[in-house]
Amino acid sequence: MPRIKFHSGETIPLEMHKVRIVQKLTLLPIEDRLKAMDDAGNNTFLLQNCDVFMDMLTDSGVNAMSDQQLAAMMIADDSYAGSATYTRLEAKLRELFGMHYILPTHQGRACENILAQTFVKPGTIVPMNYHFTTTKAHIVLNGGVIEELVKKEGLEVTSDLPFKGDIDIEALEALARKEGADKIAFVRMEAGTNLIGGQPISLANLADVRRVCDKYGLILVFDASLLADNLYFMKEREDSCKDLSIREITRRVADLCDIIYFSARKLGCVRGGGICIRDEGLYKRMRGLVPLYEGFLTYGGMSVREIEALTVGLEETMDEDMINQGPQFIAYMVSELLKRGVPVITPAGGLGCHIDAMRFLDHIPQAEYRAGALASACYIASGVRGMERGTLSEQRNPDGTEVFSNMELLRLAMPRRVFTRSQVDYAIDRIDWLYQNRKMIDGLVFVEEPEILRFFYGRLKPVSDWQEKLVAKFRADFGDSL
Ligand code: F0G
Prior knowledge:
Layout: E1 3-5, E2 11-13, H1 30-39, E3 54-55, H2 67-73, H3 84-97, E4 101-105, H4 108-119, E5 125-128, H5 133-141, E6 145-148, H6 169-183, E7 187-190, H7 203-216, E8 220-223, H8 227-237, H9 246-255, E9 259-263, E10 273-277, H10 280-287, H11 289-293, H12 304-316, H13 320-323, H14 325-339, E11 352-356, H15 357-360, H16 370-382, E12 384-385, E13 387-389, E14 409-413, H17 421-436, E15 444-448, H18 454-457, E16 459-462, H19 466-478
Parallel strand pairs: 3-12, 5-6, 7-8, 8-9
Antiparallel strand pairs: 1-2, 4-10, 9-10, 11-14, 13-14, 15-16
Helix pairs in contact: 1-16, 2-12, 3-12, 4-5, 6-7, 14-17, 16-17
The protein binds ligand F0G.
Ligand F0G binds next to helix 4.
Cofactor: pyridoxal 5'-phosphate
Subunit structure: Homotetramer.
Protein name: Tryptophanase
């Protein structure tokens, strides 16, 4: 996606692909959207996809695939053991990451299960830049604790720091000195740090982490699920990467790590996952868990068709025009929302556009779920489905009190190569309208609150008739427009 300037001087993100297969979308009238949101208990996870116009819930497993990926699926070699399809994937991963040993899995969290079961023992610590929900769950399940050491700017909504995902290296070194290799199961670095707004890490920071790991004899594990976005940001924002190809940057990243794992639902635009390991001993410690939880070593729970498409998808990740698309669309959305005064996470990261519900809805008590209320209002106003990333996604304390999240975010994920610019403009327009009318939005309360992972299937209701009033205002402002 080259930087194209219009005659007017405006710079736009220009799609470097054409659409050859389409899926019909429907945009329900706002009254029907209100009913759908009510039926879903004000939880966007419980909406039916047929009622959604733009599905910005996640970028996981919903990225567009290329013609080359679809073509590759037709030549897949169906075989339980020794499939040629798997050999091709193994060769591609070895080529890109320079690690010899590969374990296939059905998705990213399966890698986390294997890593945690192998390395995490009760009382051990896993320092990391920041956790992802499933990562933390597996570590805790095995008796470990996580220690989040992201730089302080990483937790600030607005910042100029280009690599907000970087770890505080002094804090990591202090922890390593204090606890040592016996207590530290491994050090984990996450590319494109998901929960703080898809914020990248720098190559320089990763090199510093390597230095600490070498000094204290620690294993460095790299979560590459969001590597594609992170590679783009390294090339864009880091001087030492400016003259390197994406393939060269990939190799420099990999050369610093002992183990790389990924969700292929993001990296490679298919559905699957894998672990790449440099050392034979570490590989052998993990290998036995793959047939137990995933499937035989040459498919790991993935279909051969997906594996074939993954091999192509990984190669396509080396194409700057391909990996630029998501971050540039997100940057466009972020800058347009900023122009309209809407509070968003800056700098723009990967994964999606993150709206700061803490400020957007500062008149609502945090206990009435600002980000959840915004997700509900956003769907009603636009048919755009986002994901709550705030207090609703936390778990209550054992005494029943709420754990208030540091950030209250509405994540609007940007699946790669899926939406057109006019669709993104539509989302911007409706969010702008919501912002103008933000004082009409009020809170939510639980009517059904599951004890574990309540955000997935809990049901809520509005604290007043604010949603009906919002619909009436929409009708007054937009007439009979959808
Ligand atoms: N690591 C990161 C950084 C992730 O973002 C995810 C998934 C996983 C691991 C787990 O991978 O879903 O294939 O099992 N993130 C998805 C999301 C769920 O919506 O952000 P998985």
